[in-house]
TrEMBL record:
UniProt similarity note: In the N-terminal section; belongs to the cytidine and deoxycytidylate deaminase family.
Single GO MF descriptor: diaminohydroxyphosphoribosylaminopyrimidine deaminase activity
Species per Swiss-Prot/TrEMBL record: Peteryoungia ipomoeae
EC number of the protein: 3.5.4.26, 1.1.1.193
SUPFAM superfamilies listed in its UniProt record: Cytidine deaminase-like, Dihydrofolate reductase-like
Protein name: Riboflavin biosynthesis protein RibD
Primary role: Converts 2,5-diamino-6-(ribosylamino)-4(3h)-pyrimidinone 5'-phosphate into 5-amino-6-(ribosylamino)-2,4(1h,3h)-pyrimidinedione 5'-phosphate.
Organism ancestry: Bacteria, Pseudomonadati, Pseudomonadota, Alphaproteobacteria, Hyphomicrobiales
Gene name, Swiss-Prot/TrEMBL: ribD
């Protein structure tokens, strides 16, 4: 077998491992690592839940003395900094690994090529770029936060056969079936935060938590865009705010505004109920704030106005569009996007059936070009 084919086979294993902890490693990216000796995997590691330990020390520990003279496959450049754990590049050197194959270089300024250099300086053969595109899928949110200072934004919408998001004043309308619903919960599980507009929060009274059988998962941070702090105190979001972190993003109230006192009273009541209240004036300020909190993947779940605002600001990177079999008619709320027409600047990345429904994934073309 050619060595590059062998490299791809083992890197695929490392990538598969990295996908298992996507959305569960906090501000740290989910990285996969396998140690290979005489053509066999002798150690496996994935960044632990919460972000530490990193992938490499776990794989090296499993391999034990077999790490001597072995090849390590890692989806991200091993770290070189003394953070909350010692550098992974050091661990590789101490374990006597003779070759390290990396998919993607780490843009974290504390690493940024230093990990690769440490390995090469120690006489280890280093190969970079194997299956880079495939490995980026699990790292894309982290890479976006490191290089652009904002999370990757995934907009999720569910439309009826006739392109409607729901019915005005009707609360939650069931558009898609169980398979699509499960898919949405998986997407939530891979996200660090989920955002909706206050209109959707009032109409649907959603929980925005991850509920999948067999998956124990810490629910992502929940965010409601709510200019005048209208979110009801008896909504599920507020009632669970002590348990699942919840942020309401309003706008600083102008002192002279007649409604100002009522708005600040509602803000105080939300704060007292355990909701974090943030006064920000733009979506891009919000994304910067989230990036500072270590949020790499933000999922935007609607409604129509919020979806339009994110699209208009050019802040959507991926668009997950589910289409159900129901028809809602002319009284429906029209969706800003429909499956058979890619929004400007987007291309279809994937299309698949989910029970009686379908999913179309659009991706921003500029991202594709950087890959
Ligand atoms: C690795 N292997 O599995 C991961 C890495 O806060 P710290 O000290 O844990 O450092 C976080 C940084 O570590 C993060 O920004 C990224 O550069 C790297 N993540 N590195 O060698 C891993 N998750
Ligand atoms: Zn590390």
């Amino acid at each position: 077998m050619s060595s590059s084919l062998q490299d791809e086979i083992f890197m695929r294993e490392a990538i598969a491992l990295s996908l298992t902890h996507l959305g569960r490693t906090g501000a740290n990216p989910s990285v996969g690592c396998v140690i290979v000796k005489h053509g066999e995997i002798v150690g496996r590691g994935v960044t632990a839940e919460g972000g530490r330990p990193h992938a490499e020390p776990q794989a090296l520990a499993e391999a034990g003395t077999q790490s001597q003279g072995a090849t390590a496959y890692v989806t991200l450049e091993p770290c070189s900094h003394h953070g909350k754990t010692p550098p992974c590049a050091d661990a590789m050197i101490r374990a006597g690994v003779s070759r390290v194959v990396v998919a993607v270089a780490d843009p974290d300024p504390r690493v940024s090529g230093q990990g690769l250099k440490m390995l090469a300086d120690a006489g280890i053969e280093v190969t970079i770029g194997i299956l880079q595109k495939e490995a980026r899928f699990a790292l894309s949110g982290y890479l976006m936060r490191q290089t652009r200072g904002r999370p990757q934004v995934t907009l999720k919408l569910a439309v009826s056969r006739d392109g409607m998001l729901g019915l005005r004043g009707a609360g939650q309308v069931r558009i898609t079936g169980d398979a699509a619903r499960e898919d949405v919960h998986r997407l939530r599980a891979e996200s660090d935060a989920i955002l909706v507009g206050v209109g959707t929060a009032i109409a649907d009274d959603p929980e925005l938590t991850v509920r999948l059988p067999g998956l124990v998962h810490t629910s992502p941070l929940r965010i409601v865009l709510d200019r005048t702090y209208r979110l009801p105190l008896n909504s599920k979001l507020v009632r669970q705010a002590q348990v699942v972190p919840t942020i309401v993003v309003g706008r600083a109230v102008p002192a002279a505004a007649g409604e100002g006192a009522a708005i600040s009273a509602r803000r105080t009541a939300l704060h007292d109920a355990g909701v974090e209240c943030l006064d920000l004036s733009s979506l891009s300020d919000l994304l910067t704030d989230l990036a500072h909190r270590g949020i790499s993947n933000l999922m935007v779940e609607g409604g129509a106005e919020v979806a339009r605002a994110f699209l208009a600001a050019g802040l959507v990177d991926r668009l997950w569009l589910y289409q159900g079999n129901v028809t809602l008619g002319a009284d429906g709320i029209a969706s800003p996007v429909v499956p058979d027409q890619a929004p400007l600047g987007f291309e279809v990345a994937e299309q698949r059936a989910l029970g009686d429904d379908s999913l179309t994934i659009f991706r921003r073309q500029t991202i594709a070009r950087y890959e």
